[in-house]
Amino acid sequence: MTITDAEMRIMQTLWASSPLTAADIATAVGEETGWRAGxxxxxxxxxxNKGVVSARKDGRxxxxxxxxxxxxCLIRATSEFLDRWFDGHLTPFVAHLSHARQLERREIEELRxxxxxxxxxx
Length: 122
Description:
Shape: elongated
Structural class: mainly alpha
Radius of gyration: 19 Å
Order of helices and strands: HHHEEHHH
Distance between the termini: 32 Å
Number of helices: 6
Strand order of the largest sheet: 1-2
């Protein structure tokens, strides 16, 4: 299950507050994205088919909620990214970041602390 950038924008809105109608979502993201109600409904339909959102009828409208947790999407997206760009290995990714972007001392200390915590768990 891959969530596109457009779908992710809707998911973020639903994770922040749900359930929402398609009109609620259009109001939340419409100004920023320029999407109209028809675009939102098409995206929601696609997301329903993927199983990432759920809908329940409320009178003449539907209320949409996330069917997957943000944490689960993040885990999947991170794994797919690492598999695609770094053959599934975290170390080359961290090395790339450290060379491509100057790490602040605070970030380096946080990484050290994380490594210590991982070692303590073993």
